[in-house]
Amino acid sequence: MSYNYKDLGLSNTREMFAKANKEHYAVPAFNFNNMEQMLAIVEACAEMGSPVILQCSTGALKYMTKEVTPLLAKAAVDRARAMGSDIPVALHLDHGPNLDAVKSCIDAGFSSVMIDGSHYSFEENIAITKEVVEYAKNFDVTVEAELGVLAGVEDDVVAEHSIFTNPDEVEEFVSKTGVDSLAIAIGTSHGAHKFKPGTNPKLELDILAEIERRIPGFPIVLHGSSAVPQKYVEEIKKYGGELTDAIGIPNSELMGAAKSGVAKINVDTDGRLAFTAGVRRVFAEQPGEFDPRKYLGVAKEEMKSYYKEKIKEVFGSENAYKAGK
Ligand code: G3H
Ligand code: 13P
Ligand code: ZN
Known about the structure:
The protein contains 12 helices and 10 strands. By secondary structure, it is of the alpha/beta class.
C-alpha cells in the first residue's frame, strides 16, 4: 500500500520549525517502535499542546513493518483530534541510510526524512543530501541532513568518538543542498552511555552559537539528547536489570539550546528506560501477571508522564497549539 502523508492527516516539519524558531522552543522528536510508545508520545504531546515528530528508525520500520507504521502515525493524529487537540504530527525517518530507503518511506506515507551522510566526506554528504532533497521536493516532504559525527550506536553503525560540526562548513552545506534542517554534533551522543563516569557532562554550546551566527534562523537539530534519568536506571537495576555507567545529557544543558535556533531535539533512550522500568516494576511486584495490557499499560503511562515532564523542562513547546485531554 502506498500513501500520501497529507491523506493520513500528517504534516511535514516546515511550519513546525518556523513557529518553533520564532517562539523559541524546540519540537520533540520521540522515537517509537510499537503502539504503546506511539500512544504514550501522542497523548503526552496532545495533553501538553506540543507539536510532535513521531520518529522511526530503519530498525523500527523493519519491526513495525512498512504497512503498519504509517497507519500507526495516522492513528496518532486521530487520537490527538479525539482528545480535542490540534497539534501537528509528523512521521519522520530517523537516520535514513540512502536514497532507496528515503524513496520507500516517502512512498509509504512519511512526511519527513533524514538522510544521514555524516559518515561520508563533506563533498559526498552534499551530493547524497542534494539528491534526496531533489526527490523529496516532488512530494513536499521535508529533509534533515547531518554534518559532524555523533559518538555512540546508530542501528548497526558504531562511532567511537564524536567529530564536532565545523561551523565553517554549515553555510556551504545548507546552500548547496537546499536541505530543510541540519543535525549537528556538539557533544550529544546516542544511547545510554554518553559520558564517562567522573567527567563533566557538557555540550559545546560555543560551537552551537557560532553555527547559529553562520545560518541565522535556520532549523538546527540535536540528536542523542536523552537525559538518562537515574530514577529509571536505579529502578531497572533494582528489579534485576543490568545497566552500568548510564549517563545522559542533563536537562539544564539542553534548555538553553531549545530556546535558541535548535528547532528539533531527538529523544529515544529516555522513553526506552521509562518503558522498561514500568515493565520490570510490574513483573517484580506482580509475578503472577501475564496480561500484556497490565504491564505494557503501566510502561506506556510511565513513558507518557516522563515525556510530559521533559516537554516542560526542556522543549518549552507546551501550549504552542491547542491542548487536549
Ligand atoms: O538514533 C538511533 C535511535 O535511537 C534509534 O535506535 O536503531 O535501535 O531503533 P534503533
Ligand atoms: P538518544 O539515544 O539520546 O535518545 O538519541 C536518540 C536519537 O538521536 C535518535 O535519532
Ligand atoms: Zn540520532
